[in-house]
Amino acid sequence: MDEQPSSKTWGKPIKCRAAVSRQPGEPLVIEEITVAPPMAREVRIRIVCTSLCHSDVTFWKMKDYPAIFPRIFGHEAMGIVESVGEGVDEVTEGDSVIPFFMSDCGECIDCRSKKSNLCSNLPFKVSPYMHRHETSRFTDLKGEVLYHFLFVSSFSEYTVVDIAHVTKIDPSIPPNRECLLSCGVSTGVGAAWRTANVETGSTVAIFGLGSIGLAVAEGARLCGATKIIGVDLNPDKFEIGKKFGVTEFVNAGECGNKTVSQVINEITGGGADYCFECVGLASLVQEAYACCRKGWGKTIVVGVDKPGSKLSLSSFDVLHSGKTLMGSLFGGLKAKTDIPILLKRYLDKELQLDEFVTHEVKFEDINKAFDLLIKGESLRCVIWMDK
User: Do 115 and 67 share a structural domain?
Assistant: First the structure.
């Protein structure tokens, strides 16, 4: 097993360890697998560390399509380029990189525009394969296919990622901080910064103070919001939220005979300028929209709801309120340009990352990371591949 990137493995399969999910909801099994060399426009990466995101847990529990097993989960990571496929010139062997689930091809009309991060050439989908070639790079020792997750699959010592899902980064930043910008923190900060374009002096309401909601608070703080209201059922989240700029707290379970939106409308004197739904519930989207200020308010959907969920809004209210309702995939970030900006802001001590890491474990203890997140005891648990 090669522990360091080496030209000796260029173009050859690599045997390494991976945490494989064989059945929904069952503990991951660390086993030896084979990782094929990268095809055209692909990069093979040695993962240094990875963190656990709630999306991994959601799909790990899921029994129906798009769930598929056996699968290698993980999509927040930092790694070192081991080798590249034909046509790759953005990175080379030894480069420090961050993989990400949203494509940034740099070629289509959307990727060339400042208005969107929704790539047309390689549109987002929950696929079990590589994005461009629609095949897997993983097999177990019996030769059976192991499926990919969100085009990253970082719960493996080596993985293969399309170049549209990789950006080169500053190697001087600690890996256990860099990996956080691969998905969760970037999504929340980006939702406030890029999607909503939160203005200085504005009022923000955030529904759900998990990692994403706290990252939204951090983004709103960076943008200069003066009132940041956190909404959650757990009162302990207020003290945690204060670290990221939350100024007021609404316990959604203790609003008496009022709705959460009525309470927020009273606090803000007519509604928040920006409302963020970070849980993934249609009912909360409607509550967020209801306490979004008429005339100019924006409601941004960040949480991932279950497939088939529907929103029900009054056509009269939509017409007469002048509000905006919008979604935010990966915080509206263009990964290859915006992730380096966020890392620079971390280096400049503007962006908080350290506070998101509550636990760190060895790769052998990856199931402990799942337990911590499921019990609500961690924000981000970093998993080190070689410690």
Answer: yes
- 248 shares its domain with 303: yes
Q: List, for residues 312-351, the tens digit of each pLDDT value.
A: 999 999 999 999 999 999 999 999 999 999 999 999 999 9
Maximal CA-CA distance, the chain:
68
Residue 5 predicted with pLDDT over 70? no
In a domain, 282, yes or no: yes
Strand positions, DSSP E, the chain = 14-20, 29-35, 42-51, 76-84, 96-99, 138-140, 145-146, 158-162, 166-168, 203-207, 227-232, 248-251, 274-277, 298-301, 324-327, 357-362, 380-384
CATH at 103 = 3.90.180.10
Confidence of residue 6 (pLDDT cuts 50, 70, 90): low
The token pair that represents 191 in the structure block? 């939702």
Nearest to 123 by CA among 142, 139, 104: 104
